[in-house]
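User: I'm putting together a teaching handout on how sequence relates to shape, and I'd like one worked example. Could you take Relaxase/mobilization nuclease domain-containing protein from Sediminibacterium roseum, show the sequence you're using, and then write out its predicted structure as tokens right after it?

Assistant: Happy to. First the sequence, then the structure tokens directly below it.
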Amino acid sequence: MISKVIKPGKSFAGACRYLCSNRERAEVIFSEGVRDYDHVLMAEDLESQRQLNPGLKSPVQHIILSWCAGEDIQNEKMSEIALEYLKRIQVSNTQFVVVRHNDRNNPHAHILFNRVDNEGRTIKDNFLGLRGKKIAQQLTQEYGLVPAIKKDLERTQMERMNDFDATRYEIFQAITELLPKCRSMDELAVLLKVEKIGLVYKFKGQTNEVQGISFTKGKFKYKGSEIDRSFSYGMLSKKLEQSKAKKQILNMSHSGTKIDLKAWAVARAMDMARELLKPEEEYNQLPSEFLKKKRKRHRL
């Protein structure tokens, strides 16, 4: 068994949605202090306790525990190991949830806990990654699990799966936090670059029409929909358009401009219609191979 500690985040809503919203891959196997049957209510419970310590900017702690492919780890045993892991990293008296994901060959669980405990105190995360790694090794021996020691195929696969899921969540967390600050995909790309995350477009054939979007970090690459269903190119574009529209209304109201919402909505609809009806490519934007003139054939 190995563990991976994710950098603390800000959004319980995003974390709960990522871990629990897809019922086909996610199963809550243990929880404490939250309504675990609905990810929205779960986030509300976590956020409510977070308010006991509003000065803590990153209250969301996420850890992944992974076992080797083929290991028989039933929910009861997985929960027992996860609870012992939390006890040994000195996480207690707080809200938490253990979620099993079934989308990989190797059994793995996600632990989400509130760094604001039930008394409003901060749960420290000093050297949590290193401590978690050592405790995972101890639990592997005590429970007779497959050790991640030999450089064999199984271990390599387990580490890759662990890092793959962790990196995917890190990208999800970054997009969730940065998207509200952006007005365009270009702005999002610039902010993601600071987090060492790349944004790659997929184009339709030889045209400039964007067909999809992917995100990269380190050696991993994910389609937008792999990160989250709402992070496809179409859904992201829609969110950015809605955010831009809201900011326009706020700017107009702050400037004292009287807003006719009905007229504004009609104008927005007209703009969108014009955008949809506009030809896909302007002549001067076409790739060079489409601009070559046909040679005239000389008659003999």
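A couple of points you could highlight for students: The domain at 2-148 is CATH 3.30.930.30 (BirA Bifunctional Protein; domain 2). Strands lie at 2-5, 26-32, 60-66, 96-101, 108-114, 198-203, 210-217, 220-223.
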